[in-house]
């Protein structure tokens, strides 16, 4: 699986100058949020993802990725509906692949 990066829209709250980025790899899900002088990065192992919750509005979607390890969930708003669905598909696909071949 290739890494895919999804950027929140600049037209949504809190994303104007520094939009939130979600990167999905075959090993983890990473949320990156920049500000003027810092960068906040949260990652969850793909195998520790308990659920992916997508809340869609009229135009944008909010993505909430919860961990089974008890850490803070990854939350991001302002994504296109298709991007939110793709994030969920990638996570579920990676988990299914791991379930079929746990040695990889």
Task: Describe, in short, the structure shown.
This protein is 19% helix and 43% strand. The strands form two sheets. It has a four-stranded antiparallel sheet, covered by helices on one side. The protein has a three-stranded antiparallel sheet with strand order 5-6-7. The chain has 104 residues and is of the alpha+beta class.
User: What's the overall average pLDDT, rounded?
Assistant: 92
Rg over CA atoms, rounded to whole Å, is 14 Å
Oligomer: single chain
- With strands numbered from the N-terminus, the spatial order across the biggest sheet is 1-2-3-4
Q: So how many helices? A: 1
Please give the share of residues in helix.
10-25%
What is the molecular shape? globular
| Low confidence ranges | none
Q: What is the string of helix and strand elements?
A: EEEEEEEH
Describe the main β-sheet briefly: 4 strands, antiparallel
- Number of DSSP strand runs: 7
Distance between the termini: 12 Å
User: Which class do the helix and strand fractions yield?
Assistant: alpha+beta
Question: Which range does the strand content fall in?
Answer: 35-45%
């Amino acid at each position: 699986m290739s890494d895919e990066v999804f950027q929140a829209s600049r037209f949504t709250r809190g994303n104007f100058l520094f939009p939130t980025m979600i990167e999905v790899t075959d090993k983890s899900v990473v949320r990156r949020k920049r500000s003027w002088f810092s960068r906040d990065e949260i990652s969850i192992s793909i195998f520790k993802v308990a659920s992916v919750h997508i809340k869609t509005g009229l135009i944008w979607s909010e993505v909430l990725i919860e961990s089974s390890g008890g850490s803070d969930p990854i939350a991001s708003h302002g994504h296109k509906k298709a991007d939110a669905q793709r994030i969920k598909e990638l996570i579920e696909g990676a988990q299914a692949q791991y379930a079929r071949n746990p040695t990889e």
